[in-house]
Each structure stands twice: as C-alpha cells, then as structure tokens.
Amino acid sequence: MKATQTLHDLGQSLWLDNITRDLLTSGTLKRYIDELSVTGLTSNPTIFDQAIKKSAAYDPAIRKKLKEGKSGEALFFELALEDITQAADLFKPTFDRTCGVDGFVSLEVSPLLAYDTKTTIEVAKSLHARGKRPNLFIKIPGTKEGLPAIEEAIFAGVPINVTLLFSREQYVAAAEAYLRGIERRIAAGLQADVRSVASLFISRAETKSPVRSANDGNFSESVKTVATACLRASTAAVRRLSPSSSRSRKPARSSSATRARSDAISPRSFSAR
Fold first, then answer.
1. 53 is an active site residue
2. pLDDT at 223
3. Catalytic option among 139, 144, 224, 250
4. Is residue 137 a contact partner of residue 105, using CB atoms and an 8 Å limit?
5. CA separation (Å) from 94 to 34, 103, 271?
6. Average pLDDT of 36-41?
7. 202 Cβ contact list (under 8 Å, min separation 6)
8. Using an 8 Å Cβ cutoff, are 171 and 233 in contact?
C-alpha cells in the first residue's frame, strides 16, 4: 500500500501545496487524486508567480489579456482563477463524496491586503463569486486586521482558509472569528454550514524554534517535538471553546468548526462536525 493511502486511511487529508497550468493540462493532478489519495489543493501568490515565470503555458492567455487591456493584479487573478477552477472541478467528486468536508482548493487574496480589513472583505467576496465553485476556499491571513475580515466573509457565506498562523493564540483567535461569523448567520436565519480550515504553519519551527542549536545532534527530532506540541496545543484549545456568556453565544451545531491544517496536511479527525 502506498504511504499516501496509509495516511488517508488514518484520517489525514493530503492537500497539495502547489498548482501550475502544466500540472492541470498534463493530467498529473488527476493522477495524484486517483493514485496518491490527494484530496485537496492550496495555492498562494508566490506559487502562482513561480508557475507563470517557469512555464510558457501561460503565454497565450497573457498575450490575449494584455490585448484586452488587462494588467497587474487584474490579469494575475484571471489567470489564477482559470487554474484554480479547473482544479476545483477535479476535486469536486471528493467534495461531494465527503459531503463538503474535503475536496477543497484555495485561492489567496493579495498579500498587499494583509492589514486592510475592508478591501480584504470585498476581494474575498468577489473572488469567491467569480470562482463559482462550492469547494473554493478563499485564503485570508490571520493578522489582527484579517480576523474581522474572516468573520465578515464567513457571515457572507464565503468558505475561508485562514493562513499565516504560527501559534496556538492565533489559531484560537481565528476560530473565534469563524464562530462569530457563524453565530451571526444563525441569528440572521441563514444556513450555518460554512466551511473553514486554519492553516497552522508548523514547519516554520525549523527556522523559528528556540530549541535550535548548532551542536544539537537531534535537531530534527527537537523540531518535530515543537511542531507537534504546537499543533496539539492549538487543536486542544479550540476544542475547549465554549459558548460565551458575555455574548450569549449559541453553539453552531450544524456548522463545521474551523479545522487545523498543518501545512499541506489537513487532519480530518480535528473537524468538529
């Protein structure tokens, strides 16, 4: 049995942290889904930047869009949406089979909006509407300014992948923002089932961990310990979230609480559903 199938059988969702037009047109992504148990995909502006720079596959579309007067971010997001919607269609059977628990693809808002709440909300809604795919996550950073944007996007029914999370405290804050959005939907008589994942960047422990030492022969194991502890502490903290008496919180029982996604692997077992 393949290692990826073993991971899948243990309850792990293996998401590919990459996308290129060649990956789509060559059938490689479809093969990953069929043969390697890949059940989702994420992207970010850096991934797309590298894909466009290193491949001629985008050249005809770029020339066409330039003739139409498009440039800059407008042109970029048209290219990105073309790729991400194709990927979403490939993962749609997984999305349907898991009743919307898995089979998502992610498209990130511009990193220039990391500290701009209002524009982040507008762009998140716009990108999701333009994508026209139920299994499309919009990625919003878990910055202080990003948290109210996450809440507002969830309230608007936009599935969100919260990115740039590095600690338990950030993860809890993201989960709280998600719950506030769900509570507002319930209060407004709207359907509460709006999906979300929280991307906890535990691999960054390799460069940020205080246990790093030039003389540490067991450095890789130390990093694994720190990363695992961070993930466990974060998910345990979110599981302890309870209705807030100060806000008269009502539990969103019909919704899927924001799940932990450690880099490219999303543990299904952490989903409160």
1. no
2. 54
3. 139
4. yes
5. 11, 5, 17
6. 96
7. 227, 228, 230, 231, 262, 263
8. no
Instruction: Give the C-alpha separation, 256 to 194, whole Å.
Output: 7
Could you list the residue range(s) of the whole structural domain that residue 62 is in? Answer: 3-270
Cα end-to-end distance, the chain, whole Å: 29
DSSP lists the bridge partners of residue 138 as 107, 160
Whole-prediction pTM value? 0.83
Q: Of the candidates 170, 187, 196, 173, which has an alpha carbon nearest to the alpha carbon of residue 255?
A: 196
Chain centroid to Cα 235, Å, comes to 16
The CATH number of the domain holding residue 260 is 3.20.20.70
Between CA 258 and CA 247 the distance in angstroms is 20
| Of the candidates 62, 66, 68, the residue with the CA atom closest to the CA atom of residue 21 | 62
Residues 6+ apart with CB under 8 A from 41: 15, 16, 17, 18, 19, 29, 87, 91, 104, 105, 106
For 46-95, how does the pLDDT look when each residue is reduced to its tens digit (9 = 90+)?
A: 999 999 999 999 999 999 999 999 999 999 999 999 999 999 999 999 99
Distance CA 192, CA 187 (A): 10
Q: How many separate domains does the chain show?
A: 1
Going by pLDDT thresholds of 50, 70 and 90, the confidence category of residue 264 is very low
Dump pLDDT digits (tens) for 148-194.
999 999 999 999 999 999 888 999 999 999 999 999 999 999 999 99
User: What pLDDT score does 226 carry?
Assistant: 64
139: region left, alpha or beta (phi > 0 left; psi from -120 to 50 alpha): beta
Sign of CA dihedral 51, 138, 146, 267: negative
Residue pair 260/228 in contact by the 8 Å Cβ criterion = no
What are the helix (H) ranges across 98-159?
Answer: 117-131, 146-155
Q: What are φ and ψ of residue 115, in 5° steps?
A: -120, 25
Q: 261 is written with which tokens? A: 């996604």
